[in-house]
Amino acid sequence: MSRKPPSGAVVDGIDFDRWAVILCKPDCVERGLVQRVLDMIRASGVTVTDRMDVVAQPWQAHVVYRDLLAEAKRAPRDLSTYLDEAFADRPVSVALAHGEPGIHAWLRQLVGHTDPTLAVAGTIRGDLGDDSLSVALAERRLVRNLVHTSDDPDAARRDFGTWFRDGDCLADPVFERCSVILCKPDAVERGLVDAVLDRIGAAQVAVSDRLDLTVQAWQAHVHYWDLLVDADWFPDRDIPACLDAEYADRPVTVALAHGEPGVHHRLRQLLGHFDPTRAAAGTIRGDLGDDSLAAALAERRLVRNLVHTSDDLDAARRDFGTWYGARRRALLSPLSPPRQRTSVDT
Q1: Which of 180-194, 232-246, 254-268 has the highest average model confidence (pLDDT)?
Q2: Which pLDDT score, from 0 to 100, does residue 122 have?
Q3: How confident is the model over 265-270, as a mean pLDDT?
Q4: How many Å apart are CA 145 and CA 136, to the nearest integer?
Q5: What pLDDT does 8 receive?
Q6: What residue intervals traverse the membrane (predicted)?
């Protein structure tokens, strides 16, 4: 079966009002209930296509449950550990659901209450669930409730990018040679984007596919998921609020950097220390930065340090999905000859 959606609408990001992602969780797979769950969804009048069986990576669960990770008052302190135990390196099945506008609310009703013991008969969790929230709390884990579907069109777009990447990309060597450059709002507002990209391009790296965009809040949350997970390290700051203040609805520029294996480490060295006052001369932040960690702490905000590049090949894969999306996968083809900072259509 094709790993691509049957219509260009999903890939083009046009029709997420009518599309949702179905995630059959590890307990559903282990109990052999995936087909029954998908059949119940089909029987409700929803078209189900493109089933894909995958092994979940930790970041995928973090992204799917980013809202809980960001709301420390509503989630247990060790939620990230619970997520890793429930999902990391365990099999899941995902599929696409297509229907009328409002499909997301309809599916959530069909799935039923989070706690299977409170889910009514006729719902998936009510009929097939065998766990309870009280048992999960007693055992300090997540409740096993079989299935998740996208909450709304924005969540469907995010879920699609999380799970429905090209099936071969997990082993795709392109990310060993490709990094994502994020010129942050302070770089844009100070008019330094060209200077930053020129510095990177001069370091034997081909810079291509520049894209100017306005950040959606979820992109900042996914990009900085590690800050959200480790919010306890920053007791003096509200990390979700800081991310929204620095990024949401503000302009950034992204581009791709192509080089030899090891490009991620070399670019991070070129950027310099995250605190511009500690970045060495000759680095981008050392030469162009005008903020400091001390000032950021005093003002209870994030430090403004101009630019980010992907930490490693896994981060590059995630960054590409966050900022470029599945429909721009073709941009990852090898550059021949290298194209310098060409624009892409938004």
Answers
A1: 180-194
A2: 96
A3: 96
A4: 11
A5: 32
A6: none
Written as six digits, the tokens of 185 are: 């709002």
Look up tokens 């078209």; give the residue.
Answer: 47
Lookup: tokens for 339: 């194209």
pLDDT of 326 > 90? The answer is no
Decide: residue 342, CB within 10 A, 0-12 exposed, 13-18 middle, 19+ buried.
exposed
Active site amino acids: 148, 308
Return the beta strands (E) in the chain as ranges: 19-24, 47-55, 91-98, 147-149, 178-183, 206-214, 251-258, 307-309
Q: Is residue 108 part of an annotated ligand binding site?
A: yes
Domains of the chain: 8-163 (3.30.70.141), 171-332 (3.30.70.141)
Q: Using the predicted structure, report yes or no on whether residue 22 has a pLDDT greater than 50.
A: yes
Residue 175 assigned as binding residue:
no
Token pair of 258 as six digits: 């192509």
Is 125 within any annotated ligand binding site? yes
Mean pLDDT across the chain:
85
Classify burial at 260, counting beta carbons within 10 Å of its beta carbon; exposed 0-12, middle 13-18, buried 19 or more.
Answer: exposed
Query: Is 87 annotated in some ligand binding site?
Result: yes
Comparing 112-116, 261-265, 311-315, which segment has the lowest mean pLDDT? 311-315
For 20, left (φ over 0), alpha (ψ -120 to 50), or beta? beta
Which has the closest alpha carbon to 275: 258, 265, 289, 259?
289
Three-state DSSP string of 7-48 = CHHHHHCCCCCCEEEEEECHHHHHCCCHHHHHHHHHHCCCEE
pLDDT over 90, % of the chain: 58
On whether 234 is known to bind a ligand per the annotation, the reply is: no
